[in-house]
Amino acid sequence: MKKKFTNNDIVTMYNVLNNLKGRADIVVGDADIFWANCLNLDALKEKVDKFQKVVNSITESYFTEEVTHVEKNSSGEEIRVLNDDVKEEVLNKLQKEINSLTAKEVSVDIETIPKEAIKEMIKANEKSMTYLEMTVMRQFVEEG
User: Phi/psi zone of residue 29: left (φ > 0), alpha (ψ -120 to 50 degrees), beta?
Assistant: First the structure.
């Protein structure tokens, strides 16, 4: 099923599902939940990777030779750093562009899970799941 989420929501959902995957204290529930979470994690990762690529590209576009200079970081690597006289202006423009991209809605093909299966999973994990984790799982409930 296709659902629309903001890029910010997609990144959050991906991080939550990815963290749930590695938690030993979570009872996954039935095989349908496990399989749906695997597929949803893959679909979300694809969108997160695209989003990160665009954010990196936007960021790099602001770090031109005209407004930066080269310094060495703590590891001794050379990096581009914004010049003090333009730093605030460039960072404000960059932040505005990234915020706009973060709020943009994107369609994601998600695997839905029966409402009762989600309820059972949450009930089995009510003492170990966070409200955010429960809220993210709710996004995958079959509609109708």
Answer: left
